[in-house]
Amino acid sequence: MTPVNDLYECQLQQTSKNDLLVSMSKQSRKFGVPDELANLYEFANSLDFRHFTHFGVQHPQSDALSGPKALGDWLAEHGMGEGGAKITPAMFHTALRLRGALRAYLQCEPAERRRNRDVLGALDGALEPFPLRVEARAGRGAMLAAVRRDALAGLSAIAIEVHDGTLAGTLDRLKMCASEECRRVFYDRSKPSTRRWCMATLCGNRMKTRAYRERQREAK
Questions:
Q1: How confident is the model at residue 25 (pLDDT cuts 50, 70, 90)?
Q2: Residue 181 pLDDT grade (very low, low, confident, very high; cuts 50, 70, 90)
Q3: Is 103:47 a contact under the CB 8 Å cutoff?
Q4: Cα first-last separation, the chain
Q5: What is the pTM of this model?
Q6: How many Å apart are CA 14 and CA 153, to the nearest integer?
Q7: What is the SS3 assignment for 140?
Q8: Closest CA relative to residue 105, chosen from 97, 116, 96
Q9: Residue 73: how many CA atoms within 13 Å on its side-chain side?
Q10: Residues 6+ away with beta carbon under 8 Å from 67
């Protein structure tokens, strides 16, 4: 994959893998998320469950997809939609269902993902509204492309990244932080791919300290 450009091509009239890649956000760049998983990373983290206290400051929980309009704005900001596109309540529900299924999938350990029928079934159902087809293009060859042509067409990029990430093995490195106070999705860049926390210095230390104190109390 070539270095990330400032802005990737996004043409919803001809949505394909290349068309749906957008510029990575500051967060995905900061944490070294590969560009081929950037949309999936951003979408999963549009729901922020973090509620820990750091240096005396409580982290506020938030949801970037708080309603149909917010979803439309989010898609436009991430290059997966056009500003002012009409998002119906049914479309909004479809998007939330996809996000929920993805987060449940990423919360599982990679080995469990392949055998948890409930999680796989939920993800399969959530991906069904985003059918793909193989499209042949001059100079690009065959690639996956979206079938949808409505306001949710951009979310087909997520389905493409799930497919391509599974084949490449990179999806196994996209995980959810093991801290119940965080649940942030992160990309595990460790060589053995065994990280459990998004940041060892924050969530990791917090969890280890808590476990140590619990052992001390039990010892007494």
A1: low
A2: confident
A3: yes
A4: 55
A5: 0.81
A6: 10
A7: coil
A8: 116
A9: 9
A10: 92
